[in-house]
Structures are given as structure tokens and as C-alpha cells.
Write a structure and sequence with these properties.
heterodimer; A: about 110 residues; mainly beta; seven-stranded mixed β-sheet; four-stranded antiparallel β-sheet; about 55% strand; B: six-stranded mixed β-sheet; five-stranded antiparallel β-sheet; globular
């Protein structure tokens, strides 16, 4: 149990295009999901907290107009990187929270912007 | 504010030897503490967590950690390393119930290598 999936696992796009990443909790409901970014050999940096039915809460320094988050249901949150540029290339990881003290992480999405 | 410091970005042990990964935290509220493992190009897997109660926490794959409030530490140990333990390990602190919506703050990570 407690599986979180992400789609796609890898994506390569041209500069200026938008990319959507999906995060799904497969066997539990999550009112809250989190989006993280991880650079090579570095730790996870929280980008935003996604709450079902309300606007996402972004961490300081994260451009909300560039990283659009939609928490459409209790099992699905999406992150859209708009007008992607090479500096947006990174490993994006989501997590879903079925209870206050537990987060389950997705397998991550590798984004490469050419 | 909360923060996590993992001492040692890289730890190398021999197979069968003790594994000790160090984590110190700072928190103005009672912390929730976690250890996660990450294999290359994968997400994070929860090894163990401390919320309340017993300070010695046992997790998966033979790992355990002890919450020491006086030392603000939550070090991860395993008596005997296996080759399959080679991975990146992250310590994280959460704000606990009623604070900051359960956000986690991660340490810098420690890469564990296991030599045959």
C-alpha cells in the first residue's frame, strides 16, 4: 500500500514550452501533496504545498506563475512548468500525505529543457 | 524555524560493519523526525520516523534511530551493513501537529558506500 506515482518519469522539451507533471496517490487519499525540486547530488527543496480544493502555498523564492500547481482531487496534483528554460532542468519529486505525520514520495520526474 | 544538519556528506563502511549516520536538528516546537533513503534516480522511501513515545525507533531493513532531545540528535544506525544499503540517506524534521501543515525540512544528505 501507500503508493505514489508520477508521470512522466522523464521528459525532454524545448525551451519555451510548458510541461505538466502528474502526481497520483494510488491507494489512499491525500488532502495535501508537496512538490520538491532536487538538483544533482543535493537535497530536496520544498517548492510548494498543494491542498485539494484551494490554492497552493509556495515557498519563498518560488515563482508561482512559472510553477503552476493544481490539486484537482484527493488523489491527483499536477505541476506545470510554464515557458521552461534550461535552468528549470531538474528532478521533480512529489509527496502525498495521508496523515499528519507521514508522507509518501513519488519516484520523481527528470525534466531536461534543451 | 527548523533546520537539519547531517554530519558527513559521504560515509564509507565495509560490508558487515556498523553503519552510523549522524543527524542533528533544530526546532522551536516538539519535532517529528524522519529518515529516508533514496536510490539513484528514484524517489524517497521512508526508513523510520519518530513522532512521540519511545525514543528508540526501529525501521525497515534493520535500521534504527534514537531521539535524544538533550543532544538534539536523531542518528541512524544499523549493526551490520549490506551491499544493498549503498544509497543516499536523508534526515528530515517536521513541525509536528498544528504547525506549518506538516512540511518537512531535509538535511543535505549522506551518501553511504559499502565496500565488499
Amino acid at each position: 500500500g501507500a503508493v505514489v506515482s508520477q508521470h512522466p518519469s522523464r521528459v525532454i522539451c524545448k525551451s519555451g514550452t510548458s510541461v505538466k507533471i502528474e502526481c497520483r496517490s494510488l491507494d489512499f487519499q491525500a488532502t495535501t501533496m508537496f512538490w520538491y525540486r532536487q538538483f544533482p547530488k543535493q537535497s530536496l527543496m520544498l517548492m510548494a504545498t498543494s491542498n485539494e480544493g484551494s490554492k497552493a502555498t509556495y515557498e519563498q523564492g518560488v515563482e508561482k506563475d512559472k510553477f503552476l500547481i493544481n490539486h484537482a482531487s484527493l488523489t491527483l496534483s499536477t505541476l506545470t512548468v510554464t515557458s521552461a528554460h534550461p535552468e528549470d532542468s531538474s528532478f521533480y519529486i512529489c509527496s502525498a500525505r495521508p496523515s499528519y505525520d507521514t508522507q509518501y514520495f513519488g519516484p520523481g520526474t527528470r525534466l531536461t529543457v534543451l | 524555524a527548523q533546520s537539519v544538519t547531517q554530519l558527513g556528506s559521504h560515509v564509507s563502511v565495509s560490508e558487515g560493519a556498523l553503519v552510523l549516520l549522524r543527524c542533528n536538528y533544530s526546532s522551536s516546537v516538539p519535532p517529528y523526525l524522519f529518515w529516508y533513503v533514496q536510490y539513484p534516480n528514484q524517489g524517497l522511501q521512508l526508513l523510520l520516523k519518530y513522532t512521540t513515545g519511545a525514543t528508540l525507533v526501529k525501521g525497515i531493513n534493520g535500521f534504527e534511530a534514537e531521539f535524544k532531545k538533550s543532544e538534539t540528535s536523531f542518528h541512524l544506525t544499523k549493526p551490520s551493513a549490506h551491499m544493498s544499503d549503498a544509497a543516499e540517506y536523508f534526515c528530515a524534521v517536521g513541525a509536528g501537529r498544528g504547525n506549518q501543515g506538516g512540511k518537512l525540512i531535509f538535511g543535505q544528505g549522506t551518501e553511504l558506500s559499502v565496500k565488499p
